[in-house]
Amino acid sequence: QVQLVESGGGLVQPEGSLRLSCVASGRDFNDTAMAWNRQAPGKQREFVAFIGRVGITDYADSVKGRFTISRDNAKNTVYLQMNNLRPEDTAVYYCTDVTRNYWGQGTQVTVSS
What is the pLDDT of residue 52? Predict the structure, then answer.
């Protein structure tokens, strides 16, 4: 069974930056598409960013130009670099194994002055 462990969340001021990390256990990470999703208080979960097995990426319109998803297959890790953060980015961020539909436990990101 795959386990996904996120880290890197926290409190940051508007226009600040954070980098989230997600380490995946198990084999075949190289063959796995990964994504980040988020859920803000009182709202439904929403898609944030996707990275395919060969590195193709996709982003929600709300984060394009500010967030960057990447992966290091040697470390079984996917990253989300978040720049120019806004208060509306406040949410619990979840790492997702898209190929096998596994989710991490989430990491809280709070953007506030």
Answer: 96
Residues 55, 44: Cα–Cα separation, whole Å:
27
Q: How far apart are CA 112 and CA 90, in angstroms?
A: 8
Q: Which amino acid is at 102?
A: Y
DSSP secondary structure, 78-110, as one string? EEEEE-S--GGG-EEEEEEETTTTEE---EEEE
For residue 27, the model assigns a pLDDT of: 78
- Strands 107-111 vs 10-12: parallel, antiparallel or unpaired: parallel
| DSSP 8-state class, residue 11 | E
Given a contact cutoff of 8 angstroms between Cβ atoms, the answer to whether 34 and 20 are in contact is no
Low-confidence ranges of the chain (pLDDT < 70): none
